[in-house]
Design a protein that fits this description.
By secondary structure, the protein is an alpha+beta fold. The chain is built from eleven helices and eleven strands. The protein has four domains: 79 residues, Arc Repressor Mutant, subunit A (Orthogonal Bundle); 37 residues, no CATH class; 80 residues, SH3 type barrels; 98 residues, 2-Layer Sandwich (Alpha-Beta Plaits), CATH 3.30.70. A hairpin with a 2-residue loop joins β1 and β2.
Length: 346
């Protein structure tokens, strides 16, 4: 491989590292990172510190003229671009690319639930998107507490920065603190949740934003990428609460004629199936007290969100059977609700 091609590969790696203002790299860190990238890309090249020093000098000169600065951070001499948006590979967008970005941002950029995204607003202004009228409106909770943290958390996740998370629970207002590796922001029922792993035991937890008191980025900590596909967790649950030791339950329920069309068009869970044919006739014979309606099954892990959703239909949705404890939990909830209504009616 020619020497100039080797240099170009290193410049590409260094360009990415120098534009990263979320981590602090001294000359030794840059050398280590470039070697890791070489190994990742299966390039049989060994880079030494002196080579990286020469590369930094070359990037400062014409034709690159890179604005590389050196600053003192945590007792180290850090190298980075003074302008994090600079890149030696920056090119002007074509008309087709600008039009495509304009259409995409005109849709996602109107989602006003994401506070503190000043970079998105600047990008939209640069493309003239401020002149477009709103044509899509997303559900949003304007009273959501701590929605201003979305921008900070999004930034930390996308740049793989460890954070110190201070939080409290609804039952205990005492503030606790943990070192946390943030992986995902998820919205459910007009609330935002942060999912990630605790540094000590790698256990995946989720925190509602309204229970987070402070987020402190820890750029010197080594970020641990998520070892699993978190989206697979949501395939087995409703909402965001996932209990690793809970099994998937097979749940049978009946829905009245009044609500069955709604259930058909907005299923309780992705696994929902309507019973038809002989199976449906068998269910009607087994439950003759249920007039009309339809029978359905779902297979998912029980949690608070699922129980609340099933109970929200009142008398129009009756859970008939499950191979787990969810039916008993629903019965207990209804019993306690009835007792409270009895108390206040006397």
């Amino acid at each position: 491989m020619p020497t100039n091609k080797n240099a170009f590969i290193r410049y590409k790696y260094l360009d990415k590292l120098l534009s990263d203002h979320h981590h602090y790299y001294d000359i030794n860190d840059l050398t280590k990172k470039v070697n890791e990238m070489m190994e990742r890309d299966q390039l049989d090249l060994d880079v030494v510190r002196r080579t990286i020093e020469k590369d930094l000098l070359a990037l400062r000169l014409v034709p690159f003229s890179a604005p590389i600065e050196s600053v003192r951070k945590f007792g180290k001499k850090i190298y980075r671009y003074s302008d994090s948006s600079f890149s030696i590979f920056t090119q002007e967008l074509t008309r087709e690319e600008r039009n495509l970005l304009r259409e995409v941002l005109s849709t996602i950029g109107q989602f006003d639930g994401l506070d503190n995204f000043t970079w998105l607003e600047s990008f939209k202004s640069g493309l003239g998107l401020e002149e477009r009228r709103q044509i899509i409106s997303f559900s949003n909770n304007p009273y959501l507490k701590n929605s201003n943290l979305l921008g900070t958390l999004f930034d930390c996740i996308s740049n793989e920065v460890v954070i110190r998370l201070s939080y409290h629970t609804f039952s205990n207002t005492a503030v606790r603190s943990i070192v946390f590796h943030p992986y995902l922001l998820k919205q459910y029922n007009d609330r935002w949740f942060l999912l990630g792993a605790v540094d000590e035991d790698n256990k995946v937890l989720n925190f509602a934003l309204d229970r987070i008191d402070q987020v402190e980025p820890l750029p010197t900590w080594t970020y641990r990428p998520c070892p699993e596909d978190l989206m697979e967790r949501f395939e087995d649950i409703v909402g965001v609460t996932y209990f690793e030791n809970y099994p998937i339950e097979h749940i049978l329920f009946w829905v009245s004629d009044f609500s069955k069309n709604y259930i058909e068009t907005k299923p309780i869970h992705g696994s929902q199936k309507r019973l038809r044919g002989e199976t449906e006739l068998q269910m009607k014979q087994e439950y003759p007290q249920l007039e009309g309606g339809a029978f359905y099954t779902i297979d998912c892990i029980r949690n608070y969100e699922l129980i609340r959703l099933l109970c929200s239909y009142g008398k129009d949705l009756i859970v008939l059977h499950s191979d787990g404890p969810i039916l008993d939990e629903i019965r207990q909830r209804i019993k306690e609700m009835f007792e409270r209504y009895e108390t206040i009616s006397k």
